[in-house]
């Protein structure tokens, strides 16, 4: 999708999310491209058409699992938190009662600041990254047109 988006933008067609709708697809296919770019567009569209049903099936499975977990449903009420992020958070953190303070959750995820102290001087740096990297790298927004929006 990113490569198709870049191809469209390179030809002056900037539709963002609308590129993945019916009209956007028609506009994308109608772009006049040189031979190799045209071939690449065709291959990428073919691949996208092949992957979309699989992705839709996985999206449905994630949504079913989210519906079984009230904590994930509650998290999805926050702006920018979609089903994948909410489910990953709930599954990674587990029962929140095991954390007595929010600082412990931040530390568990590696979101606490790193610290360098010496001679009575304390310096706080960027996040420690000592926790779960998968959860730290999950987007709030996700792929265009997918569940995370």
Question: Mind explaining what this structure looks like?
Answer:
With about 150 residues, this protein is mainly alpha-helical. Helix content is about 55%, strand content about 10%. It folds into two domains: about 1-70, no CATH class; about 70-140, no CATH class. It has helices spanning about 1-10, 20-30, 35-65, 70-75, 85-95, 100-110, 135, and strands at about 115-120, 120-125. A two-stranded antiparallel sheet has the order 1-2. The longest helix is centred in the middle third of the chain and has 33 residues, at about 35-65. The two termini are about 15 Å apart.
Rounded radius of gyration (Å): 21 Å
* Morphology call: elongated
Looking at how many chains there are and whether they match, the oligomeric state comes to single chain
Our estimate of the beta-strand percent is 5-15%
| Alpha plus pi helix count | 7
Topology as a string of helices (H) and strands (E)? HHHHHHEEH
Decide which structural class fits the backbone: mainly alpha
Number of strands: 2
Helix content: 40-55%
- Average residue-wise pLDDT: 85
Which spans have pLDDT < 50 for at least 5 consecutive residues?
141-149
**Spatial sequence of strands, sheet with the most strands:** 1-2
In whole angstroms, the N-to-C terminal distance is 16 Å
Total domain count: 2
Largest sheet: 2 strands, antiparallel
């Amino acid at each position: 999708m990113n490569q198709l988006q870049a191809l469209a933008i390179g030809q002056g067609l900037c539709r963002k999310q609308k590129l993945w709708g019916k009209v956007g697809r028609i506009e994308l296919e109608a772009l006049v491209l040189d031979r190799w770019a045209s071939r690449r567009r065709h291959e990428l569209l073919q691949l996208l058409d092949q992957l979309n049903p699989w992705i839709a099936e996985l999206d449905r499975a994630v949504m079913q699992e989210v519906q079984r977990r009230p904590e994930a449903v509650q998290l999805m009420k926050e702006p920018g938190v979609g089903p994948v992020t909410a489910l990953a958070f709930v599954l990674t953190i587990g029962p929140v009662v095991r954390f007595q303070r929010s600082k412990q959750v931040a530390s568990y995820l590696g979101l606490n600041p790193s610290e360098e102290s010496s001679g009575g001087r304390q310096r706080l740096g960027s996040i420690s990254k000592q926790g779960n990297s998968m959860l730290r790298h999950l987007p709030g927004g996700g792929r265009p047109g997918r569940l995370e929006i």
